[in-house]
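--- STAGE predict ---
source: upstream dedup step, 1 unique chain passed
mode: sequence only
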Amino acid sequence: MLGLAAPLATAQDRLPDIGSSAGELLTPHQQREYGQMMLAQLRHYDYVLDDPLIDEWLSSLGGRLGAHSDTPRQSFNFFMLKERQVNAFATLGGYIGVNSGLVLAAEREDEVAGVLAHEIAHVTQQHVLRAVERAQRDQMPILLAMLGAIAAAQAAGGSSAGEATQAVMVTAMGLAQQAQINYTRSNEHEADRVGIRTLSRAGYDPHAMADFFVTMQALSRVNAAGAYEFPDYLRTHPVTTTRISETKARAGQIGTPAPVFAAGPMGGGNPLLPAGLEVVGAAAGGDGTGRFGHARERLRVLTAETPQQAIREYRQMQAAGPLDDAQRYGLALAQLQSSRPGQAVALLGELLEEHPRDLWVELGLATALARSGEHEAADRHFQALSRRAPGNRAVALGWAEALTARNTEADGRRAQALLRPLSAGGASDLAFQRAFARASEVAGDPVRAGEAWAEAAFLGGRAEQALVQLNTLKARPEVDYYARERIEARIARITPVVLELHRQGIRDDVLDRRR
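--- STAGE serialize ---
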């Protein structure tokens, strides 16, 4: 699926009128700004899963592929969506969204890499820009059309796609506009060809793309029985026997032996694969980042309807056989999410003894200890992690959350100090802004807290709300000269964004109800 985006802008850099018939091509800077605005709006509708460890894994995987693409200097921003449907899409500026369901359906990281390589190719081959040109000719409001298209593709149901959200997004445009954003058949073939080349360059199995197409075909066949949600990836990236054959042939030219699909138990333990399909001979490429298993189980827990549902999923797996280490990690995370930190401590402690330098496991243990009230033990693990991985975003955010939960001014100041090194890259980091806002509140620093909460509102798709918060903050008597200068500068940069959103027909429904 192709998603296009609309931009952030400064007062000096006016947004192009992409709703006109001018046909003006967007500069790379403008494309990135449109991608940023699209991501903010997806957050506003609660589609995006912002998790530091998942972000780190996906960015590492995507960054490796982007660096080996046909345009390695192109910037990419990869983000995960909460939906359990199988889907992925590219937006302007190299913004690429991946549904959690795609990772849950994959058997190995190479398959996820195959989909990402395909989407990267849609960007590098300028398929996204060509779609913009078509939309410009039809005088379509790009941002509304793309948001509506994403909503339409996700409308089959999912962990966060409520009817109200769908109504708001889908009614923003005519469903007939869906046809304007789907890639042509030639685009798809080109993205397959270029993506396979990228996979190989990055050290992944070039057969992985075809392998995943086979999995998607199998999912679509069993969908008639109602056992699985229809893979939305097939709606916007149609998979045919011919396409699979061509993809396998291209991979074969590169020379890596393909995995073999054969009859077997429940898809190697993956409940999203149909019975009787498993991979019995994975080819070269392996688990590139070394984190695929843990990332998949973390997503299983974070996208479950409830933590109890996730625990039930693991109990079903246990009935079929012992859980592997990644699944045990997922079970511990589900226990932690369901307010059973003591059980999580026990399981994560066992895992850490077996894998003493595993950052994900030790971070989970530190968090579970903190929620159990064992603050000294938690801090020992956080300190060890900070020494071993200085500047790690997930560690800093996790420790700051544990400190602010203690709700003392001293702990709030400690949390602020932990987070400040992240501030250089925090301008577009929603998790950082929320954590810093809360830490500043606890530390008794209302001005910094107010600025951070406004930034969080802006990054979360509430640009108009951010303006209201900043104007209110600016009038407070404790705001000094330097803080007022910072606040006024942000107001000047956010105002054009609000105006563009209004021009596109997007307004803050909460603020509108208050007026």
